[in-house]
Design a protein that fits this description.
By secondary structure, this protein is mostly helical. It is built from five helices and no strands.
Amino acid sequence: RPPRSTLFPYTTLFRSYIGESRLAGPAITEFFSYYFGSAGASRQEMAKIRCFIMAQDLLWSIWALVRHYSGEDFLDYCYNRYNRFRRNLKALTQDPDSSVASMVKW
């Protein structure tokens, strides 16, 4: 397990693995337990992970929009990623500690 000080480079890995694998809540909990150990993730670390989840959705929605206007059919993908970004932004505004599992659902 990498030291906690190296969390920043791994947040994208977390998002990619959790989001793209469509892990369920218990699997996400196990994944974090393995990485962070018995101490668990700090509130600040979880906030970073949540922010990276949203940033990646926004990034991929922009990428898909560019691809769509380049003649490829990515509009549905763009729509899905952007709507998930908006949903998560609203959820985190209401509850900054909302679950990561709820953030990766389509």
